[in-house]
Amino acid sequence: MYRPRNPPNPLSSAFLKLPDTLLLVFDRQGRLAMISDAWVEALGYDLGELKQYCFFDLLYENDRSACRQKLAAMNAEAPTLRFSSRCCRKEGGYLGVVWNLTFDSDLELFYAAAHQTAVHLSPDEPQLPEMFVDGLTGLPNRSLFLDRLEHTFRRAERRKDIQFAVLHCGIDRFKVINHSLGHRMGDLLLMCVANLIRNTIRPTDMVARLAGDEFGILLEDIRDVSSTLQVVSRILQKLQLPFMLHEHEVFSTISFGIVASGAEYLVPDAMLRDANLAMLGAKQQGGGAYQVFNRGMHDQAVRRMELEMDLRHALEHGEFQAYYQPIVKLADGTLAGFEALVRWNHPNKGLISPVEFIPVSEESGLIVALGRWMLGEACRQLRHWQNTLPNAAALTVSVNLSGKQMQHPGLLDDVREALATSGLSPHSLKLEITESAMMQDTEKAALLLEQLQAMGIRILLDDFGTGYSSLAYLHRLPIDTLKVDRSFVRHLHENPTDRHFVETIVHLAQRLEQDVICEGVELAEQAAILAAMGVGYTQGFLYSRPVAANEAQILILTGFETND
Ligand code: C2E
Ligand code: MG
Ligand code: MG
To answer: Are 284 and 315 within one domain?
Structure first.
């Protein structure tokens, strides 16, 4: 029988409980600061007993000194470690565990996520084959998953009655969490999710980490697709509780793509590919949901590829066109400038909206070239108007920048080039960015925006109010103007909540000395409310839809009547 040797733990008042994950936090002496319920269950002790122990007490005696040595070598330069060991159960016997340790040198704490191995570890044979295990989560990796899937395929060939399913799971908005809370928290979240899934499926099923924030689940011997839905709903149910990642409470959701075995699948790769497509579909629906793969999705993927090829062709053949939508100064109804919005003038299909092709352009990277073209075109057009029209000197043009463009190292050069070639003053140019565009690397984005601002270009935060943790950026990023998303403007005249929201933003912007533009103004009633609130600028169908350059020119010359 295994007995603790250490005195009561002085950190025990700080105990936090995490459901379903084998997680521990302890200090250099091994004193536990946090332990999850899952450990209580896995080792068979009650929480009160475990609180008395130190980390090393949990290990099988023969594994302890090796473990102490490994931990002693961890420091700021070597903050992570993965190894396997045995833990002792209260009832006797061992538990094979793969540990993933991260050392926080600021707090002098070890974060240990553990994966209970299915492999039985005898005291003589403690090590797991490492090439099949994912280093962070301790789960099987992609190779092992495909290997097992292959095996399942072969079994199903022999026994026609066997049905199985592959689930491709992706953590929604993982990048956002990773970048806002830091990579260590991102890693912890991955470990928590890995453990949650593992503890939800049957021991005979398999979960593997396929890549990044993606997991694969193989459910064997299922009756039909509905049994997979039960697994999905159990996981989603558990995710309704937040994960406690150190002091952060993080809610997370997962999107699932589901594929059931069938005659059309001859190789594991095809099944995994389709599960992935279905998962992307679930993500597009907003996440936290599942999609069962159907043939239509495959066709859709093919259509997407064709669209990508068409887009490349369009760029080479000058099929894109810049449209301009007026931005109006509310106080006196005068024209302040335009937002440049791209349109695709397709030879057969006519004008295509950017909502249809911008996402594909972003995914394929084409947006960099397309954005460069828009920047050049918008600068050239405004400079031309300023040169030729009497009342265009003070007009500005706003150009949308996508996240991909901001990550591209050539952006500053592209902007300089567009200004130099057109002769437009940087003070006439504004760039619209979204919060999501800055999520990839906020520090780098902030630096880039500062450089643009230093050139005299003004920065607008587009679609404000729809992003993630918007307020965190406002004081950190060099933003000149908040552009309130049209979803808050649409019901402004009939919904007091939306009105309060906009009012709050106006106050906030005033405090931060930023301008406010409200987009999507369609009714004179909305414009009047916004004017009374002190909103500086508006944009919307009330004044004009986005129009081609020749029509915009008429608006500059003649002013415009509102459509109300
Ligand atoms: P956005 O930058 O927020 O642009 C405003 C969108 O709202 C435009 O849609 C505009 O036509 C629409 N809009 C303006 N006023 C009203 C209104 O009163 N009511 C309604 N219902 N809609 C209004 P559009 O032109 O379809 O562009 C959609 C999005 O596509 C843009 O949203 C922007 O995110 C993206 N986009 C457009 N052009 C470009 C571009 O050149 N580069 C990049 N990266 N993105 C672009
Ligand atoms: Mg915009
Ligand atoms: Mg917008």
So the answer is: no
